[in-house]
Specification:
With about 210 residues, this protein is α/β, with parallel strands linked by helices. It is built from nine helices and seven strands, in the order βαβαβαβαβαββαααα. The strands form two sheets. A five-stranded parallel β-sheet has the order 2-1-3-4-5, with helices on both faces. A two-stranded antiparallel ribbon has the order 6-7.
Length: about 210
Protein backbone atom coordinates (compact mmCIF):
# COMPACT_ATOMS: atom_id res chain seq x y z
CA UNK A 1 0.00 0.00 0.00
CA UNK A 2 1.21 3.48 -0.87
CA UNK A 3 0.15 6.52 1.12
CA UNK A 4 -0.99 9.56 -0.86
CA UNK A 5 0.80 12.75 0.19
CA UNK A 6 -0.16 16.33 -0.65
CA UNK A 7 2.33 19.18 -0.13
CA UNK A 8 1.70 22.93 0.22
CA UNK A 9 4.58 25.40 0.32
CA UNK A 10 4.78 28.84 -1.27
CA UNK A 11 8.55 28.59 -1.80
CA UNK A 12 9.17 26.90 -5.14
CA UNK A 13 12.52 25.36 -4.19
CA UNK A 14 11.20 23.90 -0.93
CA UNK A 15 8.14 22.55 -2.74
CA UNK A 16 10.34 20.92 -5.37
CA UNK A 17 12.67 19.36 -2.80
CA UNK A 18 9.87 17.89 -0.70
CA UNK A 19 8.05 16.66 -3.81
CA UNK A 20 11.20 14.89 -5.00
CA UNK A 21 11.69 13.34 -1.58
CA UNK A 22 8.12 12.01 -1.42
CA UNK A 23 8.48 10.49 -4.87
CA UNK A 24 11.60 8.64 -3.71
CA UNK A 25 9.90 7.13 -0.64
CA UNK A 26 8.75 3.62 -1.41
CA UNK A 27 5.66 3.74 0.78
CA UNK A 28 4.42 7.14 -0.51
CA UNK A 29 3.16 8.67 -3.73
CA UNK A 30 2.76 12.37 -4.48
CA UNK A 31 -0.90 13.30 -4.76
CA UNK A 32 -0.22 16.96 -5.44
CA UNK A 33 2.05 19.94 -4.82
CA UNK A 34 0.53 23.40 -4.42
CA UNK A 35 1.57 26.86 -3.22
CA UNK A 36 -1.40 28.05 -1.16
CA UNK A 37 -3.65 26.98 1.67
CA UNK A 38 -6.74 27.43 -0.47
CA UNK A 39 -5.35 25.07 -3.13
CA UNK A 40 -4.33 22.56 -0.47
CA UNK A 41 -7.83 22.57 1.00
CA UNK A 42 -9.53 22.21 -2.38
CA UNK A 43 -7.28 19.38 -3.55
CA UNK A 44 -7.51 17.59 -0.23
CA UNK A 45 -11.29 17.52 -0.48
CA UNK A 46 -11.00 16.30 -4.07
CA UNK A 47 -8.18 13.75 -3.74
CA UNK A 48 -8.59 12.60 -0.12
CA UNK A 49 -4.85 12.21 0.63
CA UNK A 50 -3.60 10.22 3.60
CA UNK A 51 -1.18 12.91 4.71
CA UNK A 52 -0.77 16.64 4.03
CA UNK A 53 2.49 18.54 4.51
CA UNK A 54 1.79 22.23 5.16
CA UNK A 55 4.28 25.06 5.48
CA UNK A 56 3.32 27.08 8.56
CA UNK A 57 3.49 30.37 6.64
CA UNK A 58 2.04 30.27 3.14
CA UNK A 59 2.27 33.94 2.21
CA UNK A 60 -0.97 35.44 0.93
CA UNK A 61 -4.27 33.84 1.85
CA UNK A 62 -4.65 31.11 4.44
CA UNK A 63 -1.54 30.18 6.36
CA UNK A 64 -0.58 26.58 6.98
CA UNK A 65 -1.94 26.52 10.52
CA UNK A 66 -5.29 27.94 9.43
CA UNK A 67 -5.42 25.41 6.61
CA UNK A 68 -4.62 22.59 9.02
CA UNK A 69 -7.46 23.62 11.32
CA UNK A 70 -9.95 23.64 8.44
CA UNK A 71 -8.67 20.31 7.13
CA UNK A 72 -9.08 18.67 10.52
CA UNK A 73 -12.68 19.87 10.62
CA UNK A 74 -13.53 18.69 7.10
CA UNK A 75 -11.26 15.63 6.89
CA UNK A 76 -10.53 14.53 10.47
CA UNK A 77 -8.82 11.32 9.35
CA UNK A 78 -6.12 13.09 7.31
CA UNK A 79 -2.73 13.29 9.00
CA UNK A 80 -0.97 16.64 8.93
CA UNK A 81 2.70 17.56 9.21
CA UNK A 82 3.46 21.25 9.70
CA UNK A 83 6.88 22.33 8.38
CA UNK A 84 8.73 25.64 8.64
CA UNK A 85 12.10 27.30 8.21
CA UNK A 86 11.22 29.96 10.81
CA UNK A 87 12.05 29.74 14.53
CA UNK A 88 8.75 31.48 15.48
CA UNK A 89 8.28 30.34 19.06
CA UNK A 90 4.50 29.94 18.94
CA UNK A 91 4.30 27.58 15.94
CA UNK A 92 4.75 24.32 17.87
CA UNK A 93 1.96 24.98 20.38
CA UNK A 94 -0.32 26.39 17.68
CA UNK A 95 0.24 23.29 15.53
CA UNK A 96 -0.73 21.07 18.46
CA UNK A 97 -3.80 23.21 19.14
CA UNK A 98 -5.17 22.80 15.60
CA UNK A 99 -4.64 19.04 15.70
CA UNK A 100 -1.57 18.57 13.48
CA UNK A 101 0.04 15.19 14.11
CA UNK A 102 3.64 16.28 13.59
CA UNK A 103 5.98 19.23 13.16
CA UNK A 104 9.30 19.50 11.30
CA UNK A 105 11.91 22.26 11.02
CA UNK A 106 13.41 22.42 7.53
CA UNK A 107 16.86 23.68 8.49
CA UNK A 108 17.33 22.45 12.05
CA UNK A 109 15.39 19.22 12.20
CA UNK A 110 16.05 16.68 14.95
CA UNK A 111 15.06 13.89 12.53
CA UNK A 112 14.95 13.61 8.70
CA UNK A 113 11.60 14.35 7.07
CA UNK A 114 11.29 10.78 5.81
CA UNK A 115 11.44 9.51 9.40
CA UNK A 116 8.82 12.02 10.50
CA UNK A 117 6.50 10.98 7.66
CA UNK A 118 6.95 7.27 8.39
CA UNK A 119 6.30 7.68 12.11
CA UNK A 120 3.32 9.97 11.50
CA UNK A 121 1.70 7.53 9.09
CA UNK A 122 2.27 4.79 11.68
CA UNK A 123 0.18 6.74 14.15
CA UNK A 124 2.85 8.61 16.12
CA UNK A 125 2.88 12.32 16.97
CA UNK A 126 6.34 13.71 16.20
CA UNK A 127 7.28 17.11 17.58
CA UNK A 128 10.66 18.76 18.22
CA UNK A 129 11.66 19.29 21.83
CA UNK A 130 11.87 23.08 21.38
CA UNK A 131 12.02 25.77 18.68
CA UNK A 132 15.48 26.74 17.38
CA UNK A 133 17.40 29.27 19.46
CA UNK A 134 18.26 32.50 17.66
CA UNK A 135 20.30 35.55 18.58
CA UNK A 136 18.49 38.82 19.27
CA UNK A 137 20.88 41.64 19.96
CA UNK A 138 22.97 40.81 23.03
CA UNK A 139 20.96 37.74 24.04
CA UNK A 140 19.54 34.44 22.84
CA UNK A 141 15.83 34.01 22.30
CA UNK A 142 15.62 31.63 25.26
CA UNK A 143 16.42 34.55 27.58
CA UNK A 144 13.07 36.20 26.85
CA UNK A 145 10.07 35.21 28.96
CA UNK A 146 6.84 33.86 27.48
CA UNK A 147 5.08 37.14 28.29
CA UNK A 148 7.86 39.22 26.77
CA UNK A 149 7.59 37.18 23.58
CA UNK A 150 3.82 37.73 23.51
CA UNK A 151 4.35 41.49 23.82
CA UNK A 152 7.06 41.39 21.18
CA UNK A 153 4.83 39.50 18.76
CA UNK A 154 2.16 42.19 19.01
CA UNK A 155 4.80 44.89 18.65
CA UNK A 156 5.75 43.47 15.24
CA UNK A 157 2.19 44.12 14.05
CA UNK A 158 2.57 47.82 14.84
CA UNK A 159 0.28 47.70 17.87
CA UNK A 160 0.57 50.52 20.40
CA UNK A 161 1.18 49.92 24.09
CA UNK A 162 -2.50 50.50 24.76
CA UNK A 163 -3.53 48.03 22.05
CA UNK A 164 -1.08 45.43 23.38
CA UNK A 165 -2.43 45.93 26.91
CA UNK A 166 -6.00 45.40 25.73
CA UNK A 167 -5.10 42.33 23.68
CA UNK A 168 -3.27 40.72 26.60
CA UNK A 169 -5.64 41.96 29.34
CA UNK A 170 -2.83 43.64 31.27
CA UNK A 171 -2.06 47.20 32.33
CA UNK A 172 -0.35 49.55 29.88
CA UNK A 173 2.33 50.23 32.48
CA UNK A 174 3.06 46.49 32.52
CA UNK A 175 3.52 46.53 28.75
CA UNK A 176 5.97 49.43 29.07
CA UNK A 177 7.88 47.50 31.73
CA UNK A 178 8.21 44.43 29.50
CA UNK A 179 9.43 46.53 26.57
CA UNK A 180 11.96 48.32 28.79
CA UNK A 181 13.23 44.96 30.08
CA UNK A 182 13.60 43.62 26.52
CA UNK A 183 15.49 46.72 25.42
CA UNK A 184 17.88 46.34 28.36
CA UNK A 185 18.43 42.65 27.62
CA UNK A 186 18.94 42.99 23.87
CA UNK A 187 20.75 46.33 23.80
CA UNK A 188 18.52 47.78 21.08
CA UNK A 189 17.96 51.53 21.21
CA UNK A 190 14.19 51.63 20.79
CA UNK A 191 11.07 49.51 20.30
CA UNK A 192 11.13 49.85 16.52
CA UNK A 193 14.66 48.45 16.30
CA UNK A 194 13.68 45.63 18.66
CA UNK A 195 10.53 44.72 16.73
CA UNK A 196 12.21 44.88 13.31
CA UNK A 197 15.11 42.66 14.35
CA UNK A 198 12.80 40.15 16.03
CA UNK A 199 10.78 39.95 12.82
CA UNK A 200 13.85 39.63 10.61
CA UNK A 201 15.19 36.82 12.82
CA UNK A 202 11.87 35.00 12.42
CA UNK A 203 11.50 34.82 16.19
CA UNK A 204 8.03 36.37 16.17
CA UNK A 205 6.17 37.11 12.97
CA UNK A 206 2.82 38.35 14.20
CA UNK A 207 -0.42 36.45 13.69
CA UNK A 208 -1.43 34.76 10.45
Amino acid sequence: MKYRVLIADDRALALQRMSTLVKQIGFCELAGAVSSGEEALRLSLELQPDLVILDASLGCGMGGLQTAEKLKTLLPRVKIVIVTSLPEVSFIERAKAVGAESFWYKEQAEAPLICVLKRTLAGERVYPSAPPTVALGNILSTELTKTELAVLRLMTTGATNMEIARAMSIEETTVKKHITNMLKKTGYRNRVELAVNARVAGLVIGEE
